[in-house]
Give the backbone structure.
Amino acid sequence: MEALRIYTEKPYCLQGEVTISGAKNAVLPAIAACLLTEDRVELTNVPLVKDVQTMLTLVGELGASYSLDENQKTLSLEVKRIKSTQAPYKLVRAMRASILVLGPLLARSGQATVALPGGCAIGTRPVDLHISGLQKLGANLKIEHGYIIAEAKRLKGTEIEFEKKTVTGTENLVMAACLAKGETILKNCALEPEVVNLCELLVRMGAKIDGIGEETLRITGTRELSGAEHRIIPDRIEAGTFLVASALTRGDLILKEVEPKQVEAVIDKLVMAGSQVELPGRNIVRIKGGEDLKPLDITTAPYPGFPTDMQAQFMVLMTQANGRSIITETIFDRRFAHANELLRLGAWIEIEGDKAIIRGKTPLSGAEVMATDLRASACLVLAGLIATGQTTINEIEHLDRGYEKIEEKLRHLGVRIERFTNNNNNNNKKAEVKS
Ligand code: UD1
Protein backbone atom coordinates (compact mmCIF):
# COMPACT_ATOMS: atom_id res chain seq x y z
CA MET A 1 0.00 0.00 0.00
CA GLU A 2 1.30 3.42 -0.94
CA ALA A 3 1.63 5.90 1.90
CA LEU A 4 2.78 9.46 2.42
CA ARG A 5 4.77 10.65 5.39
CA ILE A 6 5.06 14.29 6.39
CA TYR A 7 7.80 15.33 8.79
CA THR A 8 6.90 18.38 10.88
CA GLU A 9 9.61 19.43 13.30
CA LYS A 10 7.96 22.78 13.75
CA PRO A 11 4.66 23.79 12.12
CA TYR A 12 5.14 24.87 8.52
CA CYS A 13 4.50 28.35 7.21
CA LEU A 14 3.97 27.71 3.50
CA GLN A 15 5.39 30.35 1.22
CA GLY A 16 5.84 30.57 -2.52
CA GLU A 17 3.97 29.93 -5.73
CA VAL A 18 1.92 26.97 -6.82
CA THR A 19 0.38 26.33 -10.23
CA ILE A 20 -3.05 24.75 -10.20
CA SER A 21 -3.70 21.86 -12.61
CA GLY A 22 -6.69 21.25 -14.86
CA ALA A 23 -9.90 20.10 -13.20
CA LYS A 24 -10.40 16.38 -12.75
CA ASN A 25 -14.16 16.82 -12.71
CA ALA A 26 -14.05 18.73 -16.00
CA VAL A 27 -11.74 16.42 -17.93
CA LEU A 28 -13.71 13.23 -17.13
CA PRO A 29 -16.96 14.35 -18.84
CA ALA A 30 -14.88 15.87 -21.67
CA ILE A 31 -13.32 12.46 -22.33
CA ALA A 32 -16.77 10.84 -22.25
CA ALA A 33 -18.01 13.47 -24.75
CA CYS A 34 -15.44 12.21 -27.29
CA LEU A 35 -17.66 9.13 -27.67
CA LEU A 36 -20.22 11.36 -29.40
CA THR A 37 -18.13 11.87 -32.54
CA GLU A 38 -15.96 9.90 -34.94
CA ASP A 39 -13.67 12.90 -35.29
CA ARG A 40 -10.59 13.77 -33.27
CA VAL A 41 -10.99 15.86 -30.12
CA GLU A 42 -8.01 17.58 -28.55
CA LEU A 43 -8.08 18.52 -24.88
CA THR A 44 -5.49 20.80 -23.28
CA ASN A 45 -4.63 21.51 -19.62
CA VAL A 46 -5.36 17.87 -18.83
CA PRO A 47 -4.45 16.96 -15.22
CA LEU A 48 -2.18 13.94 -14.89
CA VAL A 49 -4.21 12.09 -12.27
CA LYS A 50 -5.26 8.47 -11.83
CA ASP A 51 -8.94 9.07 -12.69
CA VAL A 52 -7.89 10.28 -16.14
CA GLN A 53 -6.04 6.98 -16.67
CA THR A 54 -9.10 5.04 -15.50
CA MET A 55 -11.38 6.97 -17.87
CA LEU A 56 -8.94 6.46 -20.76
CA THR A 57 -8.83 2.72 -20.06
CA LEU A 58 -12.61 2.68 -20.16
CA VAL A 59 -13.05 4.65 -23.40
CA GLY A 60 -10.17 2.60 -24.85
CA GLU A 61 -12.24 -0.56 -24.26
CA LEU A 62 -15.18 1.12 -25.97
CA GLY A 63 -13.13 1.90 -29.09
CA ALA A 64 -11.17 5.11 -28.47
CA SER A 65 -7.60 5.55 -29.63
CA TYR A 66 -5.71 8.29 -27.84
CA SER A 67 -2.36 9.81 -27.08
CA LEU A 68 -1.55 11.78 -23.97
CA ASP A 69 1.39 14.17 -24.13
CA GLU A 70 2.38 14.44 -20.48
CA ASN A 71 4.70 17.41 -21.02
CA GLN A 72 2.18 19.48 -22.94
CA LYS A 73 -0.75 18.07 -20.91
CA THR A 74 -2.59 17.52 -24.14
CA LEU A 75 -4.85 14.62 -24.87
CA SER A 76 -5.81 13.68 -28.39
CA LEU A 77 -8.75 11.27 -28.65
CA GLU A 78 -10.60 9.66 -31.51
CA VAL A 79 -13.45 7.15 -31.49
CA LYS A 80 -13.81 6.20 -35.18
CA ARG A 81 -16.14 3.37 -34.31
CA ILE A 82 -17.74 2.14 -31.09
CA LYS A 83 -16.14 -1.27 -30.59
CA SER A 84 -17.98 -2.29 -27.44
CA THR A 85 -20.95 -0.80 -25.60
CA GLN A 86 -20.13 -2.33 -22.22
CA ALA A 87 -18.64 -0.46 -19.25
CA PRO A 88 -17.51 -3.22 -16.88
CA TYR A 89 -18.05 -3.19 -13.10
CA LYS A 90 -14.29 -3.27 -12.44
CA LEU A 91 -13.86 0.21 -13.95
CA VAL A 92 -17.14 1.74 -12.76
CA ARG A 93 -16.38 0.57 -9.21
CA ALA A 94 -12.92 2.17 -9.36
CA MET A 95 -14.41 5.48 -10.42
CA ARG A 96 -18.07 6.44 -10.21
CA ALA A 97 -17.66 9.04 -12.95
CA SER A 98 -17.52 6.08 -15.40
CA ILE A 99 -21.32 6.43 -15.42
CA LEU A 100 -20.65 9.42 -17.72
CA VAL A 101 -20.23 7.08 -20.70
CA LEU A 102 -23.87 5.95 -20.43
CA GLY A 103 -25.48 8.94 -22.18
CA PRO A 104 -22.92 9.33 -25.02
CA LEU A 105 -22.74 5.57 -25.76
CA LEU A 106 -26.50 5.26 -25.94
CA ALA A 107 -26.88 8.38 -28.07
CA ARG A 108 -24.21 7.40 -30.58
CA SER A 109 -24.64 3.64 -30.88
CA GLY A 110 -28.20 2.99 -29.73
CA GLN A 111 -27.15 0.79 -26.85
CA ALA A 112 -25.14 0.83 -23.64
CA THR A 113 -24.52 -1.61 -20.82
CA VAL A 114 -22.99 0.14 -17.85
CA ALA A 115 -22.40 -1.33 -14.39
CA LEU A 116 -24.30 0.30 -11.54
CA PRO A 117 -21.74 2.12 -9.41
CA GLY A 118 -23.18 1.07 -6.05
CA GLY A 119 -22.35 2.78 -2.74
CA CYS A 120 -19.05 4.35 -1.89
CA ALA A 121 -17.06 5.63 1.06
CA ILE A 122 -18.93 8.94 1.14
CA GLY A 123 -22.38 7.39 1.32
CA THR A 124 -25.15 6.20 -0.93
CA ARG A 125 -24.90 7.77 -4.36
CA PRO A 126 -27.81 6.67 -6.52
CA VAL A 127 -27.96 7.21 -10.29
CA ASP A 128 -31.76 7.14 -10.51
CA LEU A 129 -31.89 10.64 -12.04
CA HIS A 130 -29.52 9.61 -14.87
CA ILE A 131 -31.71 6.56 -15.52
CA SER A 132 -35.11 8.25 -15.38
CA GLY A 133 -33.83 11.11 -17.56
CA LEU A 134 -32.68 8.74 -20.29
CA GLN A 135 -36.00 6.93 -20.09
CA LYS A 136 -37.79 10.23 -20.65
CA LEU A 137 -35.60 10.68 -23.73
CA GLY A 138 -37.11 7.44 -25.00
CA ALA A 139 -34.55 4.83 -23.95
CA ASN A 140 -35.65 1.33 -23.03
CA LEU A 141 -33.86 0.64 -19.82
CA LYS A 142 -33.64 -2.32 -17.51
CA ILE A 143 -31.39 -3.26 -14.63
CA GLU A 144 -30.10 -6.80 -14.63
CA HIS A 145 -27.29 -8.47 -12.72
CA GLY A 146 -25.97 -5.14 -11.49
CA TYR A 147 -25.91 -3.56 -14.95
CA ILE A 148 -27.96 -0.79 -16.57
CA ILE A 149 -28.91 -2.09 -20.00
CA ALA A 150 -30.14 0.72 -22.23
CA GLU A 151 -31.39 0.74 -25.81
CA ALA A 152 -32.84 3.38 -28.10
CA LYS A 153 -32.90 3.60 -31.88
CA ARG A 154 -32.66 7.34 -31.61
CA LEU A 155 -33.31 9.36 -28.45
CA LYS A 156 -36.12 11.89 -28.70
CA GLY A 157 -36.02 15.37 -27.21
CA THR A 158 -38.40 16.15 -24.37
CA GLU A 159 -38.69 18.27 -21.20
CA ILE A 160 -37.03 16.95 -18.05
CA GLU A 161 -36.85 18.59 -14.63
CA PHE A 162 -34.24 17.20 -12.25
CA GLU A 163 -35.78 16.55 -8.81
CA LYS A 164 -32.48 17.52 -7.31
CA LYS A 165 -29.32 19.10 -8.69
CA THR A 166 -26.90 16.48 -9.96
CA VAL A 167 -23.56 17.27 -11.61
CA THR A 168 -22.85 14.08 -13.55
CA GLY A 169 -26.60 13.56 -14.06
CA THR A 170 -26.84 16.92 -15.85
CA GLU A 171 -23.69 16.11 -17.86
CA ASN A 172 -24.98 12.68 -18.93
CA LEU A 173 -28.30 14.05 -20.13
CA VAL A 174 -26.82 17.07 -21.93
CA MET A 175 -24.48 14.76 -23.85
CA ALA A 176 -27.30 12.36 -24.73
CA ALA A 177 -29.60 15.20 -25.81
CA CYS A 178 -27.00 16.57 -28.26
CA LEU A 179 -27.66 13.63 -30.62
CA ALA A 180 -31.38 13.25 -29.83
CA LYS A 181 -34.09 14.12 -32.33
CA GLY A 182 -35.60 17.54 -31.67
CA GLU A 183 -35.37 19.82 -28.68
CA THR A 184 -34.63 18.80 -25.09
CA ILE A 185 -35.31 21.18 -22.23
CA LEU A 186 -33.45 20.34 -19.01
CA LYS A 187 -34.63 22.16 -15.89
CA ASN A 188 -32.95 22.51 -12.49
CA CYS A 189 -29.55 21.70 -14.00
CA ALA A 190 -26.37 21.77 -11.91
CA LEU A 191 -24.49 25.07 -12.32
CA GLU A 192 -21.01 23.80 -11.51
CA PRO A 193 -18.23 25.30 -13.70
CA GLU A 194 -17.41 21.75 -14.85
CA VAL A 195 -20.92 21.46 -16.38
CA VAL A 196 -20.38 24.79 -18.14
CA ASN A 197 -16.96 23.66 -19.40
CA LEU A 198 -18.53 20.49 -20.84
CA CYS A 199 -21.29 22.48 -22.59
CA GLU A 200 -18.64 24.74 -24.12
CA LEU A 201 -16.82 21.71 -25.50
CA LEU A 202 -20.07 20.32 -26.93
CA VAL A 203 -20.82 23.65 -28.64
CA ARG A 204 -17.32 23.56 -30.16
CA MET A 205 -18.20 20.09 -31.43
CA GLY A 206 -21.26 21.54 -33.17
CA ALA A 207 -23.96 21.05 -30.52
CA LYS A 208 -26.71 23.62 -30.15
CA ILE A 209 -27.13 24.50 -26.47
CA ASP A 210 -28.84 27.61 -25.11
CA GLY A 211 -28.72 28.77 -21.50
CA ILE A 212 -25.20 27.58 -20.66
CA GLY A 213 -24.45 28.44 -17.02
CA GLU A 214 -28.17 28.66 -16.17
CA GLU A 215 -30.58 26.26 -14.56
CA THR A 216 -32.51 25.63 -17.76
CA LEU A 217 -30.65 24.26 -20.76
CA ARG A 218 -32.24 23.98 -24.22
CA ILE A 219 -30.52 21.53 -26.50
CA THR A 220 -31.43 21.11 -30.15
CA GLY A 221 -30.26 17.69 -31.22
CA THR A 222 -28.16 17.13 -34.34
CA ARG A 223 -27.40 13.95 -36.30
CA GLU A 224 -23.69 14.16 -35.65
CA LEU A 225 -21.00 16.14 -33.90
CA SER A 226 -17.51 16.90 -35.11
CA GLY A 227 -14.01 17.21 -33.66
CA ALA A 228 -12.85 20.19 -31.59
CA GLU A 229 -10.06 21.67 -29.50
CA HIS A 230 -10.88 22.52 -25.93
CA ARG A 231 -9.15 23.73 -22.77
CA ILE A 232 -9.98 22.18 -19.41
CA ILE A 233 -10.72 24.74 -16.65
CA PRO A 234 -8.50 24.93 -13.54
CA ASP A 235 -9.28 22.61 -10.66
CA ARG A 236 -11.17 24.75 -8.15
CA ILE A 237 -10.94 22.03 -5.48
CA GLU A 238 -7.17 21.72 -5.80
CA ALA A 239 -7.01 25.53 -5.64
CA GLY A 240 -9.24 25.50 -2.55
CA THR A 241 -7.02 22.90 -0.91
CA PHE A 242 -3.91 25.10 -1.34
CA LEU A 243 -5.84 28.16 -0.13
CA VAL A 244 -6.66 26.25 3.06
CA ALA A 245 -3.03 25.11 3.33
CA SER A 246 -1.94 28.74 3.45
CA ALA A 247 -4.64 29.74 5.96
CA LEU A 248 -3.77 26.76 8.14
CA THR A 249 -0.04 27.39 8.22
CA ARG A 250 -0.26 31.21 8.40
CA GLY A 251 1.48 31.08 5.07
CA ASP A 252 1.73 33.40 2.11
CA LEU A 253 0.89 31.57 -1.10
CA ILE A 254 0.43 32.74 -4.63
CA LEU A 255 -1.80 30.45 -6.66
CA LYS A 256 -1.47 30.63 -10.42
CA GLU A 257 -3.88 29.40 -13.09
CA VAL A 258 -6.93 29.82 -10.86
CA GLU A 259 -10.32 31.18 -11.82
CA PRO A 260 -11.08 33.35 -8.72
CA LYS A 261 -14.84 33.45 -9.38
CA GLN A 262 -14.97 29.67 -9.16
CA VAL A 263 -13.45 29.63 -5.66
CA GLU A 264 -15.46 32.57 -4.35
CA ALA A 265 -17.44 30.58 -1.75
CA VAL A 266 -14.18 29.17 -0.37
CA ILE A 267 -12.40 32.55 -0.36
CA ASP A 268 -15.36 34.17 1.46
CA LYS A 269 -15.08 31.63 4.28
CA LEU A 270 -11.31 31.98 4.49
CA VAL A 271 -11.61 35.76 4.78
CA MET A 272 -14.21 35.28 7.54
CA ALA A 273 -11.72 33.00 9.28
CA GLY A 274 -9.09 35.76 9.22
CA SER A 275 -7.09 35.29 6.00
CA GLN A 276 -6.19 38.12 3.65
CA VAL A 277 -6.89 37.47 0.00
CA GLU A 278 -5.75 39.55 -2.97
CA LEU A 279 -6.21 39.13 -6.70
CA PRO A 280 -2.95 40.62 -8.02
CA GLY A 281 -3.46 39.59 -11.64
CA ARG A 282 -5.53 37.56 -14.06
CA ASN A 283 -5.95 33.99 -12.81
CA ILE A 284 -3.82 34.67 -9.74
CA VAL A 285 -4.86 34.57 -6.10
CA ARG A 286 -2.60 35.51 -3.19
CA ILE A 287 -3.56 34.41 0.30
CA LYS A 288 -1.92 35.28 3.61
CA GLY A 289 -3.07 33.30 6.61
CA GLY A 290 -4.08 35.35 9.67
CA GLU A 291 -2.48 34.94 13.12
CA ASP A 292 -5.72 33.93 14.87
CA LEU A 293 -8.16 31.71 13.09
CA LYS A 294 -11.83 32.41 13.76
CA PRO A 295 -14.43 29.63 13.92
CA LEU A 296 -16.92 29.22 11.07
CA ASP A 297 -20.34 27.82 10.33
CA ILE A 298 -20.33 26.12 6.96
CA THR A 299 -23.16 24.43 5.07
CA THR A 300 -22.33 22.58 1.88
CA ALA A 301 -24.55 23.30 -1.13
CA PRO A 302 -24.58 22.94 -4.91
CA TYR A 303 -22.57 25.59 -6.83
CA PRO A 304 -22.29 28.52 -6.28
CA GLY A 305 -22.64 27.40 -2.64
CA PHE A 306 -19.85 25.99 -0.51
CA PRO A 307 -18.59 22.78 -2.19
CA THR A 308 -18.93 19.45 -0.42
CA ASP A 309 -15.52 18.61 -1.93
CA MET A 310 -13.93 21.28 0.34
CA GLN A 311 -15.67 20.24 3.56
CA ALA A 312 -12.96 17.86 4.80
CA GLN A 313 -10.17 20.42 4.24
CA PHE A 314 -12.11 23.04 6.24
CA MET A 315 -12.62 20.57 9.06
CA VAL A 316 -8.89 20.40 9.73
CA LEU A 317 -8.66 24.19 9.45
CA MET A 318 -11.38 24.57 12.07
CA THR A 319 -9.44 22.41 14.57
CA GLN A 320 -7.07 25.40 14.74
CA ALA A 321 -9.75 28.12 15.13
CA ASN A 322 -10.44 29.53 18.57
CA GLY A 323 -13.99 28.45 19.37
CA ARG A 324 -16.76 26.21 18.09
CA SER A 325 -17.29 25.62 14.39
CA ILE A 326 -20.13 23.70 12.77
CA ILE A 327 -20.02 22.02 9.38
CA THR A 328 -23.36 20.86 7.95
CA GLU A 329 -23.07 18.41 5.07
CA THR A 330 -26.19 18.53 2.90
CA ILE A 331 -25.01 16.77 -0.27
CA PHE A 332 -23.78 13.35 0.85
CA ASP A 333 -24.57 11.22 3.89
CA ARG A 334 -21.62 9.55 5.67
CA ARG A 335 -19.10 12.11 4.44
CA PHE A 336 -17.35 12.56 7.78
CA ALA A 337 -14.99 9.56 7.80
CA HIS A 338 -12.01 11.94 8.01
CA ALA A 339 -13.25 13.16 11.43
CA ASN A 340 -12.25 9.85 13.04
CA GLU A 341 -8.75 10.16 11.62
CA LEU A 342 -8.45 13.76 12.83
CA LEU A 343 -9.43 12.55 16.31
CA ARG A 344 -6.38 10.26 16.23
CA LEU A 345 -4.22 13.36 15.72
CA GLY A 346 -5.79 15.10 18.74
CA ALA A 347 -8.74 17.03 17.29
CA TRP A 348 -12.02 17.57 19.19
CA ILE A 349 -14.89 16.74 16.84
CA GLU A 350 -18.38 15.43 17.47
CA ILE A 351 -20.65 14.17 14.72
CA GLU A 352 -24.41 14.64 15.12
CA GLY A 353 -26.27 13.45 12.04
CA ASP A 354 -25.35 15.75 9.17
CA LYS A 355 -23.37 18.09 11.44
CA ALA A 356 -19.77 18.04 12.61
CA ILE A 357 -19.03 20.19 15.65
CA ILE A 358 -15.40 21.13 15.97
CA ARG A 359 -13.89 22.77 19.04
CA GLY A 360 -10.56 24.51 18.76
CA LYS A 361 -7.90 25.25 19.09
CA THR A 362 -6.40 21.81 19.69
CA PRO A 363 -2.76 21.03 19.01
CA LEU A 364 -2.37 18.08 16.64
CA SER A 365 0.35 15.47 16.98
CA GLY A 366 1.51 13.23 14.14
CA ALA A 367 0.20 9.65 13.94
CA GLU A 368 -0.58 6.96 11.42
CA VAL A 369 -3.90 7.59 9.70
CA MET A 370 -5.87 6.16 6.82
CA ALA A 371 -7.26 7.97 3.79
CA THR A 372 -10.83 6.84 3.12
CA ASP A 373 -11.71 8.88 0.06
CA LEU A 374 -10.25 11.54 -2.20
CA ARG A 375 -11.02 14.71 -0.23
CA ALA A 376 -10.50 12.98 3.14
CA SER A 377 -6.93 12.25 1.96
CA ALA A 378 -6.39 15.94 1.22
CA CYS A 379 -7.65 16.80 4.69
CA LEU A 380 -5.12 14.42 6.25
CA VAL A 381 -2.24 15.85 4.20
CA LEU A 382 -3.22 19.31 5.45
CA ALA A 383 -3.36 17.98 9.01
CA GLY A 384 0.17 16.63 8.57
CA LEU A 385 1.43 20.17 7.94
CA ILE A 386 0.55 21.24 11.48
CA ALA A 387 0.71 17.96 13.43
CA THR A 388 4.01 17.82 15.28
CA GLY A 389 6.31 14.91 14.48
CA GLN A 390 5.55 12.44 11.70
CA THR A 391 2.16 11.91 10.09
CA THR A 392 1.82 8.80 7.95
CA ILE A 393 -1.17 8.71 5.62
CA ASN A 394 -1.97 5.23 4.38
CA GLU A 395 -3.94 4.24 1.27
CA ILE A 396 -3.16 7.42 -0.59
CA GLU A 397 -4.24 5.96 -3.90
CA HIS A 398 -7.40 7.95 -3.19
CA LEU A 399 -5.32 11.13 -3.28
CA ASP A 400 -3.67 10.14 -6.57
CA ARG A 401 -7.12 9.89 -8.16
CA GLY A 402 -7.53 13.65 -8.10
CA TYR A 403 -4.42 15.60 -7.08
CA GLU A 404 -1.61 15.98 -9.59
CA LYS A 405 1.90 15.73 -8.13
CA ILE A 406 0.79 16.96 -4.72
CA GLU A 407 4.04 15.91 -3.04
CA GLU A 408 6.12 17.79 -5.60
CA LYS A 409 3.98 20.88 -5.19
CA LEU A 410 4.24 20.73 -1.39
CA ARG A 411 7.98 19.99 -1.48
CA HIS A 412 8.44 23.04 -3.65
CA LEU A 413 6.77 25.05 -0.84
CA GLY A 414 9.24 23.67 1.71
CA VAL A 415 7.40 20.62 3.09
CA ARG A 416 9.37 17.46 3.93
CA ILE A 417 7.17 14.75 2.48
CA GLU A 418 7.90 11.22 1.27
CA ARG A 419 6.00 8.55 -0.59
CA PHE A 420 6.72 4.96 0.28
CA THR A 421 5.26 1.48 0.19
CA ASN A 422 3.97 0.79 3.66
CA ASN A 423 4.21 -2.96 4.12
CA ASN A 424 2.75 -2.78 7.56
CA ASN A 425 0.06 -0.19 8.13
CA ASN A 426 0.37 -0.23 11.91
CA ASN A 427 4.10 -0.59 12.17
CA ASN A 428 6.30 1.21 9.71
CA LYS A 429 9.55 -0.62 10.40
CA LYS A 430 9.55 -2.15 6.92
CA ALA A 431 8.76 1.07 5.12
CA GLU A 432 10.59 1.32 1.83
CA VAL A 433 11.15 4.87 0.57
CA LYS A 434 10.04 5.45 -3.05
CA SER A 435 10.39 9.14 -3.72
C1 UD1 B 1 -20.00 15.26 -8.62
C2 UD1 B 1 -18.51 15.38 -8.47
C3 UD1 B 1 -18.11 15.16 -7.01
C4 UD1 B 1 -18.89 16.13 -6.11
C5 UD1 B 1 -20.38 16.04 -6.39
C6 UD1 B 1 -21.18 17.10 -5.64
C7 UD1 B 1 -17.71 14.58 -10.60
C8 UD1 B 1 -17.01 13.53 -11.38
N1 UD1 B 1 -17.89 14.36 -9.31
O1 UD1 B 1 -20.39 13.94 -8.24
O2 UD1 B 1 -16.71 15.42 -6.88
O3 UD1 B 1 -18.66 15.78 -4.76
O4 UD1 B 1 -20.65 16.23 -7.79
O5 UD1 B 1 -20.72 18.36 -5.95
O6 UD1 B 1 -18.06 15.62 -11.14
N2 UD1 B 1 -28.26 12.08 -6.60
C9 UD1 B 1 -29.42 11.32 -6.63
N3 UD1 B 1 -29.70 10.64 -7.79
C10 UD1 B 1 -28.93 10.70 -8.89
C11 UD1 B 1 -27.76 11.49 -8.85
C12 UD1 B 1 -27.45 12.17 -7.69
O7 UD1 B 1 -30.14 11.23 -5.64
O8 UD1 B 1 -29.26 10.07 -9.90
C13 UD1 B 1 -27.92 12.80 -5.37
C14 UD1 B 1 -26.60 12.35 -4.75
O9 UD1 B 1 -26.79 11.22 -3.92
C15 UD1 B 1 -26.21 13.58 -3.96
C16 UD1 B 1 -26.68 14.72 -4.87
O10 UD1 B 1 -27.67 14.15 -5.72
O11 UD1 B 1 -26.92 13.63 -2.76
C17 UD1 B 1 -25.61 15.35 -5.71
O12 UD1 B 1 -24.87 14.34 -6.36
P1 UD1 B 1 -24.21 14.56 -7.79
O13 UD1 B 1 -24.15 16.02 -8.09
O14 UD1 B 1 -24.89 13.69 -8.77
O15 UD1 B 1 -22.74 14.01 -7.56
P2 UD1 B 1 -21.82 13.37 -8.65
O16 UD1 B 1 -22.20 13.91 -9.98
O17 UD1 B 1 -21.75 11.90 -8.46
About this structure: Residues 25, 28, 96-97, 125-130, 164, 166-169, 190, 194, 308-309, 331-332 surround uridine-diphosphate-N-acetylglucosamine (CB under 6 Å). The longest helix spans residues 50-62.
